[in-house]
Automatic annotation (TrEMBL):
Residues 170-267 form the Cytochrome b5 heme-binding domain. It comes from Lentinus brumalis. GO terms for molecular function: heme binding. SMART domains: Cyt-b5. This is Cytochrome b5. Residues 17-29, 99-112, 279-295 have a biased composition (Basic and acidic residues). Residues 296-307 have a biased composition (Low complexity). InterPro entries: Cyt_B5-like_heme/steroid-bd, Cyt_B5-like_heme/steroid_sf, MAPR/NEUFC/NENF-like. Residues 1-73, 99-118, 264-307 are annotated as: Disordered. Residues 58-72 have a biased composition (Polar residues). Belongs to the cytochrome b5 family. MAPR subfamily.
Amino acid sequence: MSWILNPEGDQPKRRRPENLKDFPKDTEGKPPGSEAPDSAPTSPFAGFPLKDEYPTVQDPSDPTRQVSTKQANRPFLAYAQYRAEREKAHEEWLKRKKEREEKLARGEKVGPEEPDPTAEVEVGCMGLLKFILYATLFLLLAGKFFTGSFLWEMEVPDLRQFIPTDQRLFSEGLLAKYDGSDPEQPIYIAIDGEVYDVSSNRRTYGPGGSYHMMAGKDAARAYGTGCFQTHLTHDLRGLTESEMRGVEHWKKFYTDSKKYRKVGRVSHPPIDPASPWPEHCDPKKAEAAKEREQQAARAGAAKHQEL
């Protein structure tokens, strides 16, 4: 079962290269470790020269010793050279700064102060904003390239839901208290669940006004049918497409109005689907509504039998 423990098979052992003649010698003149040319090398790299013949340079950390310029030492030597160049540039800058201060003391004209070329550049607010801008552009372009959509096929959330508002949820009983009978209270109306403050027009929606019957209740059906005496209900069953468009038109009117404002929603109890539709105030339209109601009942019964 050795193949389970070692599925790749036995790896060939590294051997000391036969062409490497200059073996290191111990005090007795013998090579350390195994003396055979095909034995495992003492170096961790096969074929690595055991005799370092690279040029030597002064050790940046200890001037009294020399170090090899072999590959392993080159990053350290390069960094030491970089630090030396930075220190030299800083000293030259200090010298120019001192000369400038002496000229200023003598009253001579000098140019603008030179910044330290070796100073670490700090990322300020503008740098952070630029980074955010570039990162955003990169993500947008990457989304367009990979998915064909700048937003990676994600829907933009409605940010208005995170903005605190003074809107509230009304019950039908609570909404009825704002019908204008109390002059100290505002006047609210509702259309298809949306509640609007119409207190700025008390002459129309207050007691004695032409639309006072709408105050304190959700009379959405009346906005579609025009039956302002009998359709003061939120029940929209059986409305025609044109009547539904009328309801949506008035909702948009109050929503976009600069005179009125939305203050919340009203919660209605569920409507019994078996209850009859509200009768239309126009006899002809009432007859057509009955026919639509019967057709809807027959369609519902047929669907129930299929299930």
